Amino acid sequence: MPRSLPARLRIPSLGVDTSVMTLGLAPDGTVAVPPIAAHAPAGWYKGSPTPGETGPSVILGHVTVGSYGDGVFLHLKRMRPGQRVTVTRQDGSVATFAVDSVQTVSKAHFPTEAVYGNVDHPALRLITCGGTRISGGGGYTDNVIVYASLVAGS
Predict the structure, then answer these.
(1) Which domain of life is it from (predicted)?
(2) Beta strand ranges found along the chain (DSSP E)
(3) How far apart are CA 55 and CA 53, in angstroms?
(4) Which end of the chain offers a freer environment for a tag, N or C, measured as fewer CB atoms within 10 Å?
């Protein structure tokens, strides 16, 4: 599919239907995350291909949003192989992905190459926090990563 920015993300099996904002890099050089705010949307990392282009398109979302409660990716770890994810793009086209696998990893051992490295097909990576919540607002110990591949584009 030609380049077109993501506008909306839907994960029917989880009841997710969210707008998608654009994210860059944080001051420390890591990928920025959506704001900690009520109803925070998912965010597409602009350093990755757009959904449907060849390569891994990366979309991040929160599992929780501080005092605001549940995040858009609260149940991401429940995804299973074969489940569908759709991304409506700004040009009106829809990229449909099927989940290949779901992985929970320690943030200390984040699989950077597996998430951001080149692949020979259009792919999608959905990322959120997981594992144990660190007291005192320190976030979570792990990341949950969904790996998916394009199965249809219209």
Answers:
(1) Bacteria
(2) 6-11, 16-23, 42-45, 55-60, 84-89, 94-106, 122-133, 140-153
(3) 6
(4) C
Instruction: Walk me through the domains of the chain, giving residue ranges and CATH numbers.
Output: 6-153 (2.40.260.10)
Calpha distance 96→18 (Å, rounded): 15
Which residues does 71 contact at the CB level (< 8 Å), separation at least 6?
40, 61, 62, 63, 64, 65, 128
Closest alpha carbon to 49 in 145, 143, 150? 150
pLDDT tens across 96-152, in order? 999 999 999 999 999 999 999 999 999 999 999 998 888 776 789 999 999 999 999
Task: Classify 15 in phi/psi space as left (phi over 0), alpha (psi -120 to 50) or beta.
Answer: left
Half-sphere exposure of 102 (CA within 13 A, CB side): 16
The pTM (predicted TM-score) of the whole model is: 0.95
**Per the structure block, which two tokens stand in for 133?**
């919540």
* Angle at alpha carbon of residue 126, lines to 45 and 147, rounded to 5°: 120
User: Which DSSP string do the residues of 81-118 spell out, in sequence order?
Assistant: TT-EEEEEETTS-EEEEEEEEEEEEEGGG--HHHHHS-
Query: CA 17 to CA 53: how far, in whole Å?
Result: 22
* CB hemisphere CA count around 106 (13 angstroms): 2
